[in-house]
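Please annotate this fold before class:
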Amino acid sequence: MTFRTAVMGSGSWGTTFAKMLDDAGGEVTVWGRRSEVVEGINERHENTEYLPGVPLPEGVRATLDPAEALRGADFVALAVPAQTLRENLGGWVPLLPREAVLVSLMKGVELGTTRRMSEVIREVADVPEERVAVFSGPNVAREIATGEPSAAVAACVDEDAARGLQAATMTSYFRVYTSTDVIGCELGGAVKNVVALCVGMSAGLGFGANTQALLMTRGLAEITRLGAALGADEHTFAGLAGMGDLVASCVSPLARNRTFGENLGRGMTLDEVIAVTRQTAEGVKSAEAVLELARKHNVEMPITEAVTAVLHRGMPIKEAAISLISRSPKPERYGV
């Protein structure tokens, strides 16, 4: 069966996802808001803004018209910045095919509501949870776009929908597993961004592998505690959408949140880092929402608290580091 997919968003991950879909034998149209990006994809078969030097298949077409992109789609992959999802999707709702599965490629928590992206999709599009899927894993876009072996999890409460998404995205270089744990897959993707910011800060301060491993491991513990409180399967966080995504985001020099944090650790101000960061580092805005979500459920998340304090409360990074290392002694598995 040939699947038709609309990819709503022409950034690095949206473009990479479109390339995967074409490589898997599907039909794909990318919606973009900038004419120069759309023209580059259609005429030069390259997204020079976000994936320069990566050739795209001729079957990947782009359009400025959301109606054209969405027409007849089996899957609608949403690849816009997390904090813009509600506004963008609201404008697309009248155009959505009635039976299409809406797929979140986003890794964030909405400010003000603390809703996960799948919850925003269900609310805005007024669709049942069976029509909303999440696609998440250690997905550094450029590595996948150049064909390096990679993998992800397609999660939906409807197992048939998850398997359909799996079939639509499996290629010779990209392996996809299925899951019904939408909550766990989403939280793994959203909270790892916050942890990656902290790991980046530690690297920028000059700390080595021990410190970074400490932060990754304790960050995974925070993700697991929050996931358990929200009803996720704890085993999800040991998989691709949990530990896998966390490791990739914390160690890759291509990872946006890690790089953002590293620049802060080296002494740049928040405004300076924002000015030199070309793509969205989701953890910067989501940190506050993740912390608010944790507090709603009485979940202790010290790394998230420290990152939020540095980004949004003016706390010096070295002071945040001291606050983390000087916390009271606890059992390793507390709070789960």
Residues 30 and 62 are 4 Å apart (CA to CA). The mean pLDDT is 95. The two ends are 43 Å apart (CA to CA).
